Amino acid sequence: xxTMLGLSLTGRRVLFVGxxxxxxxxxxxxxxxxxxxxxxSPELGDEMRRAVDAHGLMWHARRVGPDDVADAWLVHSAxxxxxxxxxxxxxxxxxxxxxxxxxDGAHGSxxxxxxxxxxxxxxxxxxxxxxxPRRAVRLRDAIAAALRAGTLPLRRRRRGxxxxxxxxxxxxxxxxxxxxxxxxxxxxDVVVADRLGPxxxxxxxxxxxxxxxxxxxxxxxxxxxxxxxxxxxxHARAGKRVVRLKGGDPFVFGRGGEEVAxxxxxxxxxxxxxxxxxxxxxxxxxxxxxxxxxxxxxxHVANGQGAVSPSTRAALGDDTITTVVLMxxxxxxxxxxxxxxxxxxxxxPVAIVERGHTPQQRTTHSTLAEVERDAATAGVANPAxxxxxxxxxxxxxxxxxxxxxxxTR
Length: 409
What we know:
The protein has helices at about 20-35, 45-55, 80-95, 135-150, 180-185, 225-235, 255-265, 280-285, 310-315, 330-340, 370-380, 395-409, and strands at about 15, 35-40, 60, 75, 100, 115-120, 120-125, 165-170, 190-195, 210-215, 240-245, 270-275, 300-305, 320-325, 350-355, 360-365, 385-390. It is of the alpha/beta class. Strands 3-2-1-4-5 form a 5-stranded parallel sheet, with helices on both faces. Helix 1 runs parallel beside helix 2 (about 45-55) and helix 6 packs across helix 7 (about 255-265). The radius of gyration is 29 Å and the shape is elongated.
């Protein structure tokens, strides 16, 4: 029978007997733990020598003896010689020191688990009868995948210091969220969510997680930014883990900077988890690369809700720059006018990608001269991303592929 314990070895002596590949693969776990690591081995393999040099580990270049195990809290014996490993295990047994015997792990007094981590959670898998490391690793990997997906309960039931995590949810599909974002969402007590982004993941939360909808729509802001800031601070001060779930990236027209500043001013711990910004991901969903060798050498990003700035005007007039406009459907006439005033030709390609990365995604391809009429005919509406530049040509990648084919013939 095996009893699994969570041992703290920080600052405590861990003895590695043997300096080969097996010991080298495992020593990193104890380095991360902050253990006082000693290695006894006449020689070191290349991997263990690199570990010794990188971390300043204590190496005793000699054969192991009974006294070496006396002051250890844990011994790991991997000499490759079953007789030596068995002797080390016997010395440990007589001194009540736990020993991982790699030559005969099923009968060692300790076993290393197949381990995975998610934030402050550590999960270890070990077989109870006999040793089957491949089976343990397969199960560990399955658990790790579930932790990354945020489908396992990770919330702390103990209340303590609250915090806020600003999580960029990306363009919408849950599988385009970051691993860290999914984990933090699974740990949340309160989720303050926008209307865009991966809203489907909210249905996976535990029933008692409080979800607060603060989504803004064009011309309709039921919860002001100051009120959102106050919500984040108030819930964190109440000792709760708060996730501010946003579409795209928090720092790309997401007012994430304002929310971070509000938390700092209130003395609330806050971190930001980046997300795939719609600047890149939504055009990509429509097959539009925002940069392309020989076509576009840079990107200019503009907020369509504001006035057309001098820098945006300059980008619109530059043949080598792709201009990406977010939240710009209503501003389309003044954007087109600014582009024409800057000298952009009427033939300059324009693409409007609506509801990117959703089943309702639709792309309208046009030119500066025709885009207002085409958008009106198609009934284009937000959420949408406008791409202006040569990369917006509908046949760009097909033409490039054909050109490459001609070259290789």
